[in-house]
């Protein structure tokens, strides 16, 4: 059994067409080698010129790295590919004839098998040599650039009882978040951070399936991603419509100033695209360093989100203590779960049961200090225009208790971490999915 250190981190999250330069898998030290992708399958095509490079790790092994600095393939002895292919995936054996290697095989002593654990992610591994692959000759420069990765931190000797398992990279956590998001148990914004919203989503997955997922089991997570919609990241080309907006320079905090605007639109393409792909803005920018998001035709790396959940929800549970909304069908089976901000000590949400009355998309917002809450010096009724940056985001699900509803938010990164004015606040994309699952009359149970 492999250990969690094999998880490859970012390496397993590569996207794009995987390919095989024949020269890469030439005999090495008398061994016949083959090149496989990160799912363990043979790579058969030649990548585009300049799209990959060879990386030599500190033990002399060769990996194929794409322009995102992620491993998309690696060398293994041909005999080992044949041996391990029969043991990979859901208890089934690969068809060796269908997956036959195009390279002659030469057996090696069993003790020389490479360990998959050795291919740890670059941030936590040792130094590597980065060599640009010459697309014309397959050769490498004489003087490679050496990249030294930081040494892993050692837990304090005085507190051995607090030692934990291996820390997860952002790429590993993001893969888990994408898996949960695609399966209707939302982790909120995808940001590569292992927080309370991810934990709640894992609990919801257990409620739905009876399965406990180990966040460090990236082999399992990535294999399921590949089988259900593709790997965690993909590429997206910014369109002219994306770049055109419309956008506004900033969102005022004062409701009277909001009411003067025509629409509470996005403030930038970064904000718009981050929300479209369920991502934290800073994480989107970190994945695309130096990118000008305002230029049409620019390719960026984004999360590969899935389709919205379908079905019929007959009951919603708004769990105040857990800060989560869960939905159920007529049989009592969990349909979806979303991290939520549900009221506060000053403006608590209702208790008991209410029902859904109507669903409004792209709603405006009526501010009434006499029946809602007092904001600043505003003491008059104000009509705040619609838009994703409006007070209730892009969705309003009205409840039978007047002035209360389930709605979106202009600040998705705060969901589950701040207070609301008594309503149930979700990310705009989670609220939109929920809006498609409910109808008037659905029961909403608030539990403490």
UniProtKB/TrEMBL annotation:
Which residue ranges does UniProt annotate as crossing the membrane? none
Question: Which superkingdom is the protein from?
Answer: Bacteria
- What metabolic or biological pathway is this protein involved in? Cell wall biogenesis; peptidoglycan biosynthesis
| Gene3D superfamilies on file | L,D-transpeptidase catalytic domain-like (2.40.440.10)
The family database entries (Pfam families) matched by this protein are listed as: YkuD
InterPro entries according to UniProt: LD-transpeptidase, LD_TPept_cat_dom, Transpep_catalytic_dom
Name of the molecule in the record: L,D-transpeptidase
Question: What is the species listed in this Swiss-Prot or TrEMBL entry?
Answer: Hoeflea ulvae
